[in-house]
Amino acid sequence: MLKYRFGFTLLELLVVISIIGILAGLTMVSFTGAQKQARDTQRQSDLKQYQNLLESFASTRSGLYPSRITAAVTLDSLCGTLGASGCPLDPSNPTYNYYYISNGSGSPSNNATQFVIWAYQENSSQYFIVCSIGKTGTAAAAPINDSCPLP
Fold first, then answer.
1. What is the chain's Cα-based Rg?
2. What is the pTM for the complete model shown?
3. Quick check: 103 and 118 in contact, CB under 8 A?
4. The pLDDT value given to residue 2
5. Residue in 110, 115, 112, 151 with CA at minimum distance from that of residue 133
6. Cα(43)–Cα(30) distance, rounded to whole angstroms?
7. Nearest Cα residue to 61 out of 112, 130, 135
């Protein structure tokens, strides 16, 4: 007499679990890349907002920007100077920040004629840079002074 067994064998269960694990791993890899890209897009948008704040600030001060010449400063430290009620922070703060440097004759005064702002991009491992002369783009290294490093 034949006995009928209902259910799955151990081998069948292991194969299904392995396939599910592989698919989950592939999904996580693509999801991580998508998250980095989304944070980079947010960074670019935030830097454009800062550029607008700086241009608005300069429009009421004879075209002059805040001077920060000793070293690059984080952009959120300029919120009060720019008259902003709230400034965006990097999506991965405090790991990454937005930075600002300008020319001028002293910090903190408002006599700079140019600035450079930038942020590190996770997905491309480059820096997204916005210059006061209207150039925007990426570079392999962070700016070291107020001169726009973009061609």
1. 25
2. 0.81
3. no
4. 65
5. 115
6. 20
7. 112
Query: Across all residues in the chain, what is the average pLDDT?
Result: 90
End-to-end CA, the chain: 85
Query: Which of 110, 108, 126 shows the shortest CA–CA distance to 40?
Result: 126
Q: Which two tokens stand for residue 25?
A: 């791993």
Mean pLDDT over 25-31 rounds to 84
- What amino acid is encoded at 106 in this protein? G
| Dist CA 40 CA 45 (whole Å) | 9
Distance CA 115, CA 144 (A): 12
Residues 83, 101: Cα–Cα separation, whole Å: 18
Beta bridge pairs of residue 129: 118, 137
Closest CA to 103 of 91, 111, 92, 95: 111
**Extended beta strands in 11-140, E state:** 73-74, 98-102, 115-121, 126-131, 136-139
How many other CB atoms sit within 10 Å of the CB of residue 1?
Answer: 2
